[in-house]
Amino acid sequence: MDIVSLARFQFAMTTVYHFFFVPFSIGTAFAIAIMETIYVRTKNEVYKKMARYWGNIFLLSFAVGVVTGLIQEFQFGMNWSDYSRFMGDIFGAPLAFEALLAFFMESTFIGLWTFTWNKVKPGVHALFIWMTSIGSMISALWILTANSFMQNPVGYTIKDGRAEMTDFFALLKNPQLFFEYGHVIGAALMMGGVIVAGLTGFQLLRAKKQPVSDETKHIYKTSMRFGMWVSLIFAVLTIAVGHAQMQYLIKEQPMKFAATEAIYKNTKDPAGLALVGVADQKNHELKGSIEIPGMLSFMSYNKFSGSLTGMDEVNKDLTKKYGKYIAGEKMNYYPPVNTLFWSFRIMVGVGMWVALVSIVALFLTRKGKEALYEHKWMLWVVALTTFLPFIGNTVGWFVTEFGRYPWTVYGLFTIKQSVSPTVSVASLLTSNIVYFVLFTALAVVMIGLVIKELHKDPANIENPQLLEKFMDPFDKGAF
Predict the structure, then answer these.
(1) Residue 344: CB partners within 8 Å, gap ≥ 6?
(2) pLDDT, tens digit (0-9, with 9 covering 90-100), for 396-437
(3) DSSP 235-246
(4) First to last CA, the chain
(5) Alpha-carbon torsion, ordered 135, 140, 146, 148, to 10 deg
(6) Distances in Å between the alpha carbon of 329 and those of 162, 213, 417?
(7) In 3D, which of 437, 421, 409, 433 has the Cα closest to residue 77?
(8) Where are the alpha helices (DSSP H) in 365-375?
(9) 442/439 Cα distance (integer angstroms)
(10) Which stretches of 152-253 are DSSP H helices?
(11) pLDDT exceeds cutoff 80 at 474
(12) Residue 159 vs residue 74, higher pLDDT
């Protein structure tokens, strides 16, 4: 174990765990906003009860997301101080906007929404959750602005060995940001639909053992179709934006693209798409592959012709451009190919599976049809799909971050240059263990509280919300 590996593992652990809850919160907030808007427009009480029921789940994910987000930001000072010195002038601006504008907006309106049920007009209350949802999306925009600079540096100059911003708006016009933001937000909104439909699937399975009222069952069935529609719409959008993003990477980050397809040598014309295989990173070849002839050319250029550049040639170009040595260290520009190859396929598979399950579930629950609810195995398929977006989002970030190897800021600053000079193996090992125990404890508590909230009857959800009964500032007896 060395310092760089431990520091990378710790950042990966905190980021992955935090990112379990970011799209969870963004997606469920958006879904709840639509539910409450339907209630305001139709006066259908079912949607109001749905909004309150799923709102408690959203509050839990938001709370845990805040805690893990704070821990993640500590990493920049703890383990990556040289990166912070190099990037501080640029990285700090989007993070400041995220904290002072987006997060404050999100936090303010989530409080108003939580504590004003039946205390303000329905339209005003719906506005609160919409502002919360918009705030969470703006928050993601600023974070991804910073990340997009790391992928494709723009609007900067190097002065005294540090990157300094010369054009703030260039960061917002970064083409990488357009694709990255659209893909992340689409996946988050898809996840919101999957969470609603999938957890409803568990509740309908439970209702087969412990019968519930007709009203409760109606709320569950409405939630199921609602979640599936949201899942389908945004699964298709996410796939479309992701496809456009990969075509963009062919020119902008050819090494990352080639690694996701395990292409070492320049391909034939047309190029076949490898469905499976294992990259031999020593001999630079893909073994055991099964290919669809011409498909990779079609996906890359929208036509069944055209070859693609392999990693070996890209590596020569990068070596020529940046040198064999950086900061006295011999460079290897090859990313972890097997990680990228399989992460990409899992990510795509999750998106396609969600779209397929959504289509089938909507067909089986169309007007006058109950086929989905009558078969346990079908409900189990929907229910277990709940966990797939967590996996899909995680491997998606693997593609984004591992594909940039060996850079923290592409072409400007390497991973080894970024590590804090004073950290030790002992301190990193200790903090890794502490964070792992802390995250495990949070996960156990989170799962327990979600199960507790799910077991409540949505038909009688007019009881105070999760925190409202303990600390309602609008209660007459509070002062």
Answers:
(1) 260, 261, 395, 399
(2) 999 999 999 999 999 999 999 999 988 889 999 998 999 999
(3) HHHHHHHHHHHH
(4) 56
(5) -140
(6) 20, 68, 10
(7) 421
(8) 371-374
(9) 5
(10) 168-172, 175-209, 214-252
(11) no
(12) 159
Paired tokens of 407: 């850079």
Q: What residues form DSSP beta bridges with 330?
A: 325
| Torsion angle defined by CA atoms of residues 211, 377, 359 and 238, in that order, rounded to the nearest 10 degrees | 100
Q: Which distant-in-sequence residues (6+ apart) come within 8 Å of 41 by Cβ?
A: none
Two structure tokens written together for 197: 């439909």
Give backbone dihedrals phi and psi of 3, rounded to 5 degrees, phi first. -60, -45
Torsion of CA 40, 44, 47, 51, to 10 degrees: 50
Number of residues in the chain: 479
| DSSP of 394-442 | HHHHHHHHHTTTTEEETTTEEHHHHS-TT--HHHHHHHHHHHHHHHHHH
Half-sphere exposure of 376 (CA within 13 A, CB side): 5
In the beta sheet, which residues pair with residue 157?
164
Q: Is 52 exposed, middle or buried (0-12, 13-18, 19+ CB in 10 A)?
A: buried
For residue 43, count CB atoms less than 10 angstroms from its CB and return exposed for 0-12, middle for 13-18, buried for 19 or more.
Answer: exposed
Q: What value does the mean pLDDT take over residues 147-160?
A: 92
